[in-house]
Amino acid sequence: MNWFHSMLSDGTDDLISSKRAVTIAAFVLCAIAFVADLFWDYKVDPNVFEGMMYIAIAGLGVTASEKFAKKSEAPKL
Q1: Is there a domain that residue 74 lies in?
Q2: What is the pLDDT of residues 18-40, one digit of tens each?
Q3: Domain total for the chain?
Q4: Which domain does 45 fall in, by range?
Q5: Minimal CA–CA distance to 55: which of 35, 71, 36, 33?
Q6: pTM (predicted TM-score)
Q7: What's the whole-number mean pLDDT along residues 58-62?
């Protein structure tokens, strides 16, 4: 369970990142739709599947780009 929490946390303040939670949820839903279509011949609307796929791709890209972004410190007052 600690591994799952560390996967969802953003790394700065150990809180769960909503971007990562939404990305994982979109990925899981896409995977379920793929498996349901593959094994049980359940048809998912292609527009819904593509929308969830784009959310997962965009979330993965944003999360990955955070690792390479320059960390800026808060301005001192």
Answers
A1: no
A2: 777 788 888 888 888 888 888 88
A3: 1
A4: 15-66
A5: 33
A6: 0.65
A7: 82
